[in-house]
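haha ok so turns out i had the wrong file open the whole time. this is the CORRECT one, sorry everyone. sequence first:
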Amino acid sequence: FEVIGVQARKGKFGDENLDGRIFVPLPLVTRVLLGGSNTKSVGVRIRSEVEIEPAMDAISGLLRRQHRLPDSYADDFATEDQAALVKEAQRATTTFRVLTFALGGIALLVGGIGIMNMMLVSIRERTREIGIRKSVGANPGRVQAQFLIEALVLSTLGGTLGLLAGIGATRLTGSLAGWQVAISPSALGFAFSAA
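then structure:
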């Protein structure tokens, strides 16, 4: 065959590499490659999204006529709309994202309760220190600021360690599974600010 053009890169769609395809005229495929006129599948490209439904109806009508199917018979072929598959995948991704955010919110709530309990234990264990500070002139605001700063340092260290562990786990999972992973700086910023 003579190559007459190369299409722009499209990447992957699911497990299929869209850049590893060749396009050959259908009569040539049936005559030379398949050795007959039986065709397993045909891909059709439509100019605009509004033309998809009419094109699918026209293709179905043509195939029914060519297969000589009476009106009472079901189709012995299937037509698929790739745009519908993409929309379904986007819906699944959105659901997964919502579940991930919900899980993150629960983790933040549990982490906040953990920090609160640690600070309560810290205050209970240090009542003598608080009493001594107050007796030498520290006002309640300063004592409160000390514990708030400790809570801030504790949550900042926990957030930093959590981000590093998350990045490491993501990269490790990606390398083991052979995926290309992208870590969004905005997601990291949101996670850290929430912590």
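The radius of gyration is 31 Å.
again sry for the mixup
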